[in-house]
Amino acid sequence: MRIRPATRADVDGVLDLWAVGRTEHATTEDRRVDVERVLEQSPGALIVAEEDGAVIGSVIAGSDGWRGSIWRLAVHPDHRRRGLGIALVRAAEEHFRELGIPRVQALVGDEDEVARAFWSRAGYPLDAGSVRHVRDH
User: Fold this and answer.
1) What's the rounded Cα separation, in Å, for the pair 61 and 46?
2) What angle do CA 102, 96, 91 make, to 5 degrees?
């Protein structure tokens, strides 16, 4: 298994992974154009885990320049409970360190108990003092 920055050749594999590995609490549509935009606008932000040429995990490590955000952590159901999720989180953190970004947040669905427990174990306590306001356009 290898963890590395995604390339354009990984787009189909990432979309296939998200089709089976995303949480039911995810609300944003998975679109090729969006994955390609991440690759173009934020090189290195989409990180994948591959095994035997197949994408089996992914995470997006995005930044506004001083704060990092982790989205779309997904592990193929056949590869869960092997430490791959935490390895992807640590790869995202390393990406932020390389960019000089000291603060990282993980965006997690409020009702997703499994994800909330995972992030707590990964060292990301709940920030009860924050709320998120969102507007689609």
Assistant:
1) 6
2) 125
Model confidence, pTM: 0.92
Q: What tens digit of pLDDT does each residue of 45-98 get? A: 999 999 999 999 999 999 988 899 999 999 999 999 999 999 999 999 999 999
Longest dimension (CA), the chain: 43
Let me know if residue 95 belongs to a domain. Answer: yes
Q: What is the CATH number of the domain that holds 89?
A: 3.40.630.30
d(CA 22, CA 25): 8
Which residue is listed with tokens 């791959």?
84
